[in-house]
Amino acid sequence: MFSDPAQNVAAFGLTEGMRVVEFGAGSGAYTLAMAERVGSTGKVYAIDVQSELLSRLDNLVKEKRRSNIEIVRANIERQGGSGLADNLADVVLLTNVLFQSDAKYSMVLEAKRVLRPGGQAIIIDWQGSFSQLGPTPEQVIKPEEAKQIFDQAGLKFDRDFSAGDHHYGMIFNKQS
């Protein structure tokens, strides 16, 4: 099985009214699944740097009549780059973005900044390189390396979760 956004989001423990952020929203599959979970009193901030992807996502959000999604074009690779307030979010999700970045540590620091104390940073990334799917072998970020980056940024490892045959998932906590 490939990575299933709805199934993966079920593992996050999202509840009605939460504020969540997706770094690298892309096609919006995770954004929409999280918006469903946090309900009308919650909010999802879908962040990406690619205008074309955000335009498509905006059209999809309008088509699905989701009023709890805010689309943000921003650079998540630098401190303050998301444009979001400090301590805003209950959850920050980084899906298939860490392997693409040359500023991994800065990206994780930005996730930490927007997380409220006690909030969770969640990563889903590629386990390996699968021919024409996903990253090249050199780009793959192994789970141990991801743990080290999150740990250095001051986020505490909580648990792993199954994220599909080609992906791994991990949850980290921002200490109070």
Structure explained in plain terms:
The radius of gyration is 15 Å and the shape is globular. The mean pLDDT is 94. A seven-stranded mixed beta sheet has the order 3-2-1-4-5-7-6, sandwiched between helices. With 176 residues, the chain is α/β, with parallel strands linked by helices. The chain contains five helices and seven strands; from the N terminus they run H-E-H-E-H-E-E-H-E-H-E-E. Helices cover 29% and strands 29% of the residues.
Record field, number of beta strands: 7
**Judging from the principal axes of the Cα atoms, what is the shape?**
globular
Secondary structure category: alpha/beta
- DSSP helical segment count: 5
The description of the largest β-sheet is:
7 strands, mixed
**N-to-C series of helices and strands:** HEHEHEEHEHEE
Percent of residues in β-strands? 25-35%
Mean pLDDT: 94
Helix proportion range:
25-40%
Biggest sheet strand order reads 3-2-1-4-5-7-6
Q: Note the gap between the termini.
A: 37 Å
Labels describing this entry:
176 residues, alpha/beta, seven-stranded mixed beta sheet, 7 strands, globular
Fold blueprint:
Layout: H1 5-10, E1 19-23, H2 29-38, E2 43-48, H3 51-64, E3 69-73, E4 89-95, H4 104-114, E5 115-126, H5 143-152, E6 155-162, E7 167-174
Parallel strand pairs: 1-2, 1-4, 2-3, 4-5
Antiparallel strand pairs: 5-7, 6-7
Briefly characterize the structure.
The protein is built from five helices and seven strands; from the N terminus they run αβαβαββαβαββ. The chain has 176 residues and is an alpha/beta fold. The longest helix has 14 residues, at 51-64.
